[in-house]
Amino acid sequence: MKYVDEYREPQKAETLLIEIAKISKNLNKHVKIMEVCGGHTHSIFKYGIEEVLPSNIELIHGPGCPVCIMPRGRLDDAISIAKHSNVILTTFGDTMRVPGSKFSLLQAKAEGADIRMVYSPLDSLKIAKENPNKEVVFFGIGFETTAPSTALTILQAAAENIQNFSMFCNHVLVIPALKALLDNPDLQLDGFIGPGHVSMVIGCQPYEFISQQYHKPIVVSGFEPIDILQSIWMLLNQLVNNHYQVENQYIRTVQYAGNKNALQAMNEVFTVRETFEWRGLGNIAHSGLKICDRYAIFDAELKFTTANIQVADNKACQCGEILKGVLKPWQCKVFGTACTPENPIGTCMVSSEGACAAYYKYGRFAKAFSQLQHDENKVIA
Asked: Are 188 and 30 in contact (CB under 8 A)?
């Protein structure tokens, strides 16, 4: 099968691992590489990539999970909108179980709110057409990956003059988040595995600041095991040669200039917020999108009154430190005990792209055993 089987061949993986091991010996240092996207995190654990890398190569899991970075206050606002008697709130499946300050959208649905799961914002537009006496609100989340589809849906609603449709916009931008991470003194990174899905839209050019201003390498990567191993090999080559640039491993999908049609739709419908709150990272300037004045009729924040306040996370949950890459999921005190996929305390355990969910599904017991061995060795020493 083209573009799948050939990116999972064991012989190719073994060749890359041999080359990675050779380069790692020449580095003479501990290397920290952040994979920004949650999709990469799940591939890394699904295929056991982290376990076969040299001991001086460490993978750090970044904030590229749109559900994970959603702050509690915005969830509370979505729930308050859904509680209006004439409102149908629509959203993606992962969002349904994200805990707000009191309960989740799924629990609000159980209490009587009309909240429906959809696969696309166009599904929401269809629901609005079928329910002309209801206000249909789409809870829009995601990075630049999903923002174009939301923008195109709003353009379609405008073209058809569907005035009972609006969107609660929570789309965020990856570049300001990367800048915030690079400026964080607690997190010393050596390079980045760039997000493949976001880059399909924005291209590679926006990452140039990483190599030019911060002198760090970044490689935009696909999601198969060979993709990720090749991207690590490319990053290590840059590090050993002290030559930093933006490289595109995912050339079968990502173009350097991005998707012009998608970017055009986003630029027409959205404008950049002055600031937006990220769970764990706090307020990041110019990191969120909102609907521009031209399409204000489709802005749920203008149609409905929302509290729009910051709500602190559960004190037991360390999602914030995990999203910043400061902690690994298994280092959280409630990981796998009080916090599980069936009973999540934090967002990282909810989303299919969350780092905690990946560790729990693929690496929980291996990591626990590894840590136990490490502790025993320290005692013996």
From this structure: no
